[in-house]
Amino acid sequence: MRRILFLARAEVLHVVRDRATLAQVLIVPILQLLVLSNAATFQIRDTPTYIVDLDRSTASRRLVERFESSGHFRVAGRSASPTLADEALLAGDVTMALTIPHDFEAMLVRTSAAPLQLSVNAEKGSAAGIVQSYASSIVSAYAAELTAAGGGAARIDLRTRSWYNPSLDYRHYMVPGILVALVTLIGTLLTAQNIAREKELGTLEQLNVTPITRGQFIAAKLLPFWTLGLLDLAIGLVVGVVVFGVPVRGSLLLLFSAAAIYLVVALAIGLWISTIVETQQQAMFVTFFVMNVYLLMSGLFTPIDSMAPWVQTVSQVNPVRHFVTISRAVLVKGAGVRDVAQPLLILVVFAGVTLTLAVRQYSKRIA
Amino acid sequence: MSDAPGGAAIDAHDLTRRFGSFTAVDRVTFAVRRGEVFGFLGANGAGKTTAIRMLTGLLSPSGGRATVAGHDVARDAERVKRDIGYMSQRFSLYEDLTVRENIRLYGGIYDLADREIRDRTARMLGRLGLEHAADSLVRAIPLGWRQKLAFSVALLHEPRVVFLDEPTSGVDPITRRQFWELIYEAAAAGTTVLVTTHYMDEAEYCDRISIMVAGRIAALGAPAELKARFQAPSIDDLFVRLARPAQ
Amino acid sequence: MTALAGLIRKEVYHILRDRRTLVVIVALPVLQVILFGYAIRTDVDRVRLAVVDPSPDPMTLALRARLDAAGVFEIVTVSPTMDAIEPLFRRGEAQGAIVFEPDFAEHAGRGVPASLLIVADATEPNTGSIVQAYASAVVQAYEQEQTTRSRVVRIAPAVRMRFNPTRRSSNLFVPGLMAFVLTIVSSLMTAISLTREKETGTLEALLVSPLRPWQIIAGKVAPYVVVGFASVVGVIVEARLVFGVPLRGSAALLLAEGVLFILVSLSLGILISARTSSQRVAMLGALVGTMLPTMLLSGFIFPIESMPAPLRAISAVVPARWFVLVARSVMLKGTGLAYLWPATLILLAMALALLAASTRAFHERLEA
Lengths: 367, 247, 368
What we know:
The complex is a heterotrimer of chains A (367), B (247) and C (368). In chain B, 36% of the residues lie in helices and 26% in strands. Chain B is of the alpha/beta class and 247 residues long.
């Protein structure tokens, strides 16, 4: 209705004229995107390694060379003392220690088999597994080299391929997720803060005396923030593509349609928060706490498949989870509507439910 | 009760509001005629604000009934809102919007056509002498002008009744006088004005006043008549006398 | 000193009387540790695998059986062609695929190496690497068993996983999680004491009293440090009981460092409350708005050594980063002050610096 447009227009003017809000909407998200995308990585590179080469033979030296030139490992210390290696591990100076026994080459010549000792600092959890797998593949490749040199041949030719992210760039994984986080923060935080401020200033009462209905008021409030959320997504996406080289393999229309639905949920949550707080400060804190839970349980930073099963089930009611899935699927894997139909449908249901609940809660509080 | 010509613009009968065990407004009965300037007085906490919130449809009564501009405030709150104007004590105009933008906003909310908004804006600014400030932010306008502007905006959609909550607080005497001239103009044009105020001298400007004490109306009538009846030299004196026993 | 004691006593009464808030302060970190402890993990325990086998034969079937028996793979589908596989990847229903070439066993028998392709969804790079590693390990183990030719060289690394033999990622994350929830509860306590002071307008009254600024600060911080101690104990117990995180070092050291960390967090909050009201909303916004990036830069989830240099530098001024280091070292490695004195000193310095800044801010308010 016409009333909604009039009020929405006033809202937009408020936002545009308030420098703090403007910064919050435009500058802060970009900064956060830049910082977070660079911080949010589990990439393992240049793993500091300690070499204890007790053999000092051609074979052992060649093996060490293979490690050095692999790009995954960096030799940070070398000696003939396993004790020193252990201390370096303990102090955290190295993540892996490679010990080559003193009869390495001799055993290879005699029996075509030789042992090695790898000590990995497993503090880092799954990173240790990856370090081990890198090390193992270097060792296997070296063994295959020696086999070929000796005239033998393997029966299975094993090849591996990485789909969707061949360069193993963590930012391609994180940026689509971080965009979701930003859009969520904008939608929920701004809505909660804005309405809380109206409560604080007393402007709500003035509007309550006018014939404008609750529905019209809420629509007029949510519309500008909904638009801002989509705008922020667009800006963030441009930054992601230009600065981080994030791929855009799927349909942008699909992505933004999903975003449009998702934003309704985020805004509804912000509306609900505004009904339980009284000041802007409280709005900020509550939004932050709530968002924390949502974000950390959404598969944004750590994979959903790694979560305990009961948590995975609980995350089904987390709208952030679904939009993160859609965002990654569409941008990185080129998914189409049919591939993301399930999370999309869930988001639609959420949008309806949360908006209804929030509006009802809002109406009750005012009277 | 419908609004027959010359009938009551505000008609409250045993209007009551309870909050749990506390009765804020206790069986208040009064009527305000069309075009009257009615002063609604009382100490803080006496129930004025609660009563006004019921009359403006913001709060539903716990008991009794009231009609404003012919509509029942409990059943027809939305119709009531269309026919009333309101100027709240805390806030009226958005400070970070210009004068013109504020007027446009309220005009749109009250469903005025674009042309009407333009015409009325011009007329209002002309009457107030604020044409030069049409595109200034409200924040930049002195308080006195702001209050007068807020009042005019409350009248923008030509409501039948307008509620003013402490409209002249913090304003200098000259501006107060000008403000009351605006109020008289509106009343003369047929708008009913219900105004609350702390300034007892302003009570003398009203056609009739009521004084609320502890949720009840302790006195109701024209200022001169009340002074005679209670043999009080001034409304101020009368007020203190009535309010004190309740403390 | 009695004035200070009186102040502390008043503040303690406030806290104790507000039963609901007290419960929230102690329960919130405990709840968060449980929730996030089960959520923030990077272990890959189950991999959904698709199989493409155009011409099943004894060898492909044997390899498929091996994969199935490995315990880590869940074969979601077997298909003769690649076409059916792509949509599975896009939907996330498959994380990896094993692709046999046609006539697999025949080629292997003839000495023409039989081609086996392992495809992994590398959207999440580490998961991709792990899927490849697991699958490769199974195939290579099979290969080594079948090989009889002596000219195949075998080098077998014996791997020791130090400090976290089970390699459960919760052992990595839970200590860091402790730092995270303690930061949150500290900011909550700051917010509470701020609101209370604003509501009762007591800050002004305190400032004009004979109390010196440092006494006011001490009076405000001390009670919450005590409450915070309860939170520290709560999260450590939880880490041990619920997640089985080892505690190889000194519990006393860990507790002490935890209290020190809370002191730093509270000092930051007090500094904010010392600023004038009009700036407060902006500063609170800054605190809240930067808290998420701060936590992510503390090494809690993402390893600091993986970050680019400028962020590593910023991480050094994030208090949580040092407590994360301490917690992990004490719990997993059993290190003591001999290794941890630099981190402890830094935390101590931060606390003192923040408290000094607060004192000065209070002085300024007095003068203004």
